[in-house]
């Protein structure tokens, strides 16, 4: 198949879709006639091995990213003078065009947009990728929600040039203040751009004004964001994400988690490319990368995030935690060593639950995922039990022994297990270490598996330490009464 604009490798160029700081983007077709988007980088790599290595590393990371909110990288050729990337072609107008045409998004649509973009950033950040140029023009309003495109890969090549010449890379109105202040630029810069992009979708106005580049830079550096008209439900998150200090901004994973709660509370359907309600889900879309076929139903993925069975969330998780804690505290008071068994059991159960979600994360159908989680639960439970002996078992046991030794006066009695106070203190140390390790696992996995209900899993992870603390409090009260 011949292209009107020539060929790039096995791809026939059909139409130029756009041009930007990175280079040019073309609609192309592979040998099967399937349409893809080919992004040709602006400048040749030449003989710069460091630049080529940085680019290859980031492209490899991008190819590992799989999310309905991120345009997938299907192919890449970095060996030629004009490196190019091949990404899935997604129909739909940009957020910039949609807002210009139809005005600001409704609140429920805005929450869906904010959640989708935060989830996309959380997943790409977990893969070690920073977008660097998030803005309304780089968000496609697909039929099943927002899709993040145009990662700032070319800026990896320009890092040295930026340092030497001070040339600004990116879009000033959506850039983070650290880009203008010669500070370290990383994942928090994407969070700042997320806030500016969501605020634009809420108001229809550029968040930092329509003036010159210099005036926008001044407004960004001094925190002069125009947030009039942003819904009250989103305002605290957007203000936190626009904080001048990058370390004070929430992570994308935290934003996605909190927005998922808002989305469930609103219980509104997703929006179409024009910001209007979608009556029914579309049929799955089949895409190819030349060596394998992949069927993705974005609407099913989003529905799974809201309807997948799992532990309760929010206040319900706290209620379950309280109900489970009462009998566990009673048992721990009667048998102090039971605290270790309770903590270990909860840690193994938590790991088995998130492992089940992780194993089936690439399955498209929510029903299939749920069935496989049930069928594989005995296997994941056994694997979690074996692995928990080493981690977090060993460090938690070491902390518990140290606490027991110190509390017992640097010596152990022959029947040390009958000493309630040292055993209780050791149980607290065991529970804190175990809960901290398992909780971090849940956060890391949750960034890759958006439908994972992290609140309930976090509650299970810390329940052992909570039980030990309650038992210690009861013993202290009994001692002083």
TrEMBL record:
Residues 287-304 have a biased composition (Basic and acidic residues). It is an enzyme of class 2 (transferase). Keywords: ATP-binding, Kinase, Membrane, Nucleotide-binding, Transferase, Transmembrane, Transmembrane helix. InterPro entries: Kinase-like_dom_sf (IPR011009), Prot_kinase_dom (IPR000719), Protein_kinase_ATP_BS (IPR017441), Ser/Thr_kinase_AS (IPR008271). PANTHER family: MITOGEN-ACTIVATED PROTEIN KINASE KINASE KINASE 20-RELATED, SERINE_THREONINE-PROTEIN KINASE YBDM-RELATED. Its EC number is 2.7.11.1. CDD domains: STKc_PknB_like (cd14014). Residues 11-271 form the Protein kinase domain. It comes from Microtetraspora glauca. Residues 268-307 are annotated as: Disordered. GO terms for molecular function: protein serine/threonine kinase activity. The chain crosses the membrane at residues 317-350, 371-404, 416-438, 459-480. This is Serine/threonine-protein kinase. It comes from the Bacteria. ATP binds at residue 39.
């Amino acid at each position: 198949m011949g292209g009107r604009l020539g060929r790039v490798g096995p791809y026939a160029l059909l139409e130029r879709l756009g041009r930007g700081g990175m280079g040019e983007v073309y609609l192309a077709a592979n040998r099967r006639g399937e349409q893809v988007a080919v992004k040709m980088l602006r400048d040749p790599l030449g003989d710069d091995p460091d630049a080529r290595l940085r680019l290859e590393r980031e492209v490899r990371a991008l190819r590992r990213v799989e999310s309905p909110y991120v345009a997938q990288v299907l192919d890449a050729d970095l060996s030629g003078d004009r490196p190019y990337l091949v990404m899935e072609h997604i129909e739909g107008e940009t957020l910039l065009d949609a807002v210009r045409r139809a005005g600001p998004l409704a609140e429920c649509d805005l929450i869906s947009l904010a959640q989708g973009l935060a989830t996309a950033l959380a997943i790409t950040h977990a893969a070690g990728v920073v977008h660097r140029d998030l803005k309304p023009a780089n968000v496609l309003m697909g039929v099943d929600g927002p899709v993040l495109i145009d990662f700032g890969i070319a800026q990896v090549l320009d890092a040295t040039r930026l340092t030497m010449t001070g040339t600004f890379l990116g879009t000033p109105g959506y850039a983070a203040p650290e880009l203008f202040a010669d500070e370290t630029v990383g994942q928090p810069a994407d969070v700042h751009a997320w806030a500016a992009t969501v605020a634009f979708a809420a108001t229809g106005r550029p968040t930092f004004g329509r003036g010159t580049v210099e005036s926008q830079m001044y407004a960004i550096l001094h925190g002069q964001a125009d947030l009039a008209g942003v819904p009250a439900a989103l305002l605290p998150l957007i203000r936190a994400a626009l904080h001048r200090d990058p370390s004070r901004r929430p992570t994308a994973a935290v934003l996605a988690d909190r927005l998922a709660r808002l989305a469930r509370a609103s219980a509104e359907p997703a929006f179409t490319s024009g910001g209007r309600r979608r009556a029914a889900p579309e049929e799955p879309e089949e895409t190819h990368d030349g060596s394998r076929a992949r069927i993705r139903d974005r609407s099913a993925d989003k529905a799974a995030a809201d309807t997948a069975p799992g532990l309760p969330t929010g206040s319900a998780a706290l209620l379950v935690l309280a109900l489970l804690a009462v009998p566990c505290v009673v048992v721990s008071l009667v048998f102090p060593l039971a605290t270790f068994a309770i903590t270990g059991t909860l840690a193994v159960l938590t790991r088995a639950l998130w492992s089940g979600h992780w194993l089936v994360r690439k399955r498209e159908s929510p029903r299939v995922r749920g069935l496989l989680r049930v069928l594989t639960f005995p296997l994941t439970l056994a694997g979690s039990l074996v692995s928990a002996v080493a981690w977090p078992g060993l460090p938690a046991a070491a902390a518990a022994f140290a606490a027991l030794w110190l509390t017992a006066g640097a010596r152990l009695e022959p029947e040390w297990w009958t000493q309630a106070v040292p055993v209780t203190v050791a149980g607290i140390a065991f529970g804190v270490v175990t809960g901290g390790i398992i909780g971090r696992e849940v956060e890391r996995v949750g960034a890759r598996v958006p439908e994972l209900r992290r609140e309930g899993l976090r509650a299970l992870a810390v329940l052992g330490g909570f039980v030990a603390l309650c038992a210690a409090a009861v013993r202290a009260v009994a001692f002083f009464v």
